[in-house]
Amino acid sequence: MSGTYLGMPAFPAAAREAVGNATLRGNLRHATHTIRAKRAKAVSEVSDWAELREAGRRIKDHTLRHLDRYLVQLEESVTAAGGVVHWAADADEANDIVTQLVKMTGESEVVKVKSMATQEIGLNEALEAEGIRAYETDLAELIVQLGKDRPSHILVPAIHRNRGEIRDIFAREMSEWGRPAPEGLTDTPAELAEAARLHLREKFLRAKVGISGANFMVAETGTLVVVESEGNGRMCLTLPETLISVVGIEKIVPAWQDLEVFLQTLPRSSTAERMNPYTSTWTGTTDEDGPRNFHLVLLDNGRTDTLADEVGRQALRCIRCSACLNVCPVYERAGGHAYGSVYPGPIGAILSPQLRGTGSEIDASLPYASSLCGACYEVCPVAIDIPEVLVHLRERVVQGGEVTRAGNKVVLRPAKGHAAERAAMRAARWAFLHPGALRTGQRAASRTRRFHPRSLPGPGRAWSGTRELPPVPAEPFRDWWQRTRGGKDGDR
Amino acid sequence: MRVALFLTCVNDTLYPDTGRAVVKLLTRLGVDVDFPSGQTCCGQAHYNTGYRHEAEPLARHFSDVFGAYEAIVTPSGSCGAMVRELYPRMGERARTEGRGDTLAATLAPVVPKTYELTEFLVDVLGVTDVGAYYPHKVTYHPTCHGLRGLGLGERPRRLLQAVKGLELAELPGAEECCGFGGTFALKNSDVSAAMGADKVRNAESTGAEVLCAADNSCLMHLGGTMARLRTAMRPVHIAEILASTEEEPAV
């Protein structure tokens, strides 16, 4: 994935910084709680939500099971409609393909619709290295780009910023990238939106190349679909002469009819809208209307490997609605940057360690970035059992095991740094299988309770630094029971 | 009716009062309670931290100890969810890994017979008024595994509402996790503590004297947070409230 994220510290360290940042926490709390309540209302309006959720799960599972077939069908449909299909095994291949395609047009700038796939592969940086400037046109993405920042949310990349910060970024940076911000810009939403509109309009009208992702690809017709709220996407998709779409291979649905389900569940889950404002569909090229050249880059980048994992593959059902982020109490405190990946929150915690492997410190820590409260599973419109996959990946981290990497079966060794924990777990298991030993331990703890320290050494410090320890009682329950037979011998 | 009390390792070691309260309450309701002394731990900490193979012998041990009983009652939504939701998955997993049906067959008998305390009271005994007396203002935190794992729903609140003298205050953001999460509290202690502090502040805002839940693990984390924040509020397990009567009030 994107080089921007290399060398990130493990989640607990990154989250510690965020937890200590009062502005960030305030921004996140306000935004997630607002959207959370709206989503719940939008979902409760639909009487057949449970059925829609199940239908979405089934369509995605069916498509993933027959992905090979549908990909071939999609390639045929896109080609027949006048598009060109390219296959990219990883980020480097995808970036090379896009860079070459842009160079062939002779252009040195492109406009972009917000796209998770191009962020995942670090396309903007790759283009920049070849002298091509990529302009983000989604409002939040523009804020992130101008602020030399990283997105911290799938749907609202600038969720961590408040209005005042955005005003400062616009006033300071817009002139570097094109039309400057108007004089005396205030932080009212209407003025900020107008400043962005003027700044972007100039680019839409000038650009000859557009780059997009897609929310869905329809195998039977070769149609791509982008769902958005601002209309910038539609400009990028229709005004340029050349359109290049970079899309993950899991985004396929078999037929037009399948969109019926997702065009209901996606907007309600993501923006809490009954219907999203702009749904753009495009099928190859059409004479004298829209782009004259259309290229589809189909991105694997770890997806086939993820598909090989029976438990983990359900992460590929994700339609990037971000409902799991908005409801997650951990995301709310830690913010998106702490996840060290373009996919933050609960879905990021299961997707990134599968797409990238669990080799790095950050990826090995992500499966633990959850209290397993289950709120993410409850809101997921395609019923991804995120807690189950988290536990599955935790096992991979601490015990190793067989996984598929780049199409080959490899046996992972347990991640470093878990030796003491493993020993403790084994010791606990032994004690729990020997009730007598457990009782001896409990009694010893009770007898020495007056001498127990108020703060713990080693890993226990993580507890006692912020919370008092519970006092150990004078007598464990099992001793009371033995002494009194449950109160029958007196001493209730 | 004769039931086995699965107290859980945390309650046995740190919260014997909760165990005594369950015994007192069930006995008062005419239930014959046994405490199988071979019981230890359901294996949840192992399972959820990723040591699932270590959890298997603990699940087998649980079935050995409790398999013969008519019903198994536990004052923990989390440990109850472990047995009911995750034991079947452990069995299924052993099957898909080609280890046969032995584990599934061993665990199957205990799964449908295991009840969280409030579930047992409402669904099996069919009572909501357990004859309790508790003259305090209480706010209830539905813990995640009870709420979303077992689907306890309104059962605990209905039981509390029927308690004489008890004033129930609605907890803002009730369904949000308190931040305990087992080893999460150690591995991500900063986020865990921030979540706990928010939960405690929400509980305080109700003006209640007591924060009640059906899981002492969550209450251990919240109680520790309350003590550190010097909050006047106390954490109390729901069993201790339901066991309290006018003759023998809980302190």
TrEMBL record, chain A:
GO molecular function (one): 4 iron, 4 sulfur cluster binding
Keyword RNA-binding: no
Name of the protein in its database record: Iron-sulfur cluster-binding protein
InterPro entries noted in UniProt: 4Fe4S_Fe-S-bd, 4Fe4S_Fe_S_CS, FTHF_cligase-like_sf, Helical_ferredxn, LUD_dom, LutB/LldF, LutB_C, NagB/RpiA_transferase-like
Keywords tagged on the record: 4Fe-4S, Electron transport, Iron, Iron-sulfur, Metal-binding, Repeat, Transport
TM helices/strands, residue ranges: none
Organism classification: Bacteria, Bacillati, Actinomycetota, Actinomycetes, Kitasatosporales
Keyword Repeat carried by entry: yes
Record domain 4Fe-4S ferredoxin-type: where: 315-384
Superkingdom, taxonomy of origin: Bacteria
Automatic annotation (TrEMBL), chain B:
Domain Cysteine-rich: 3-83, 138-222
InterPro entries (UniProt xref): Cys_rich_dom
Pfam families, A to Z: CCG
One annotated GO molecular function: oxidoreductase activity
A Gene Ontology cellular-component term: cytosol
Protein name: Fe-S oxidoreductase
Upper taxonomic lineage: Bacteria, Bacillati, Actinomycetota, Actinomycetes, Kitasatosporales
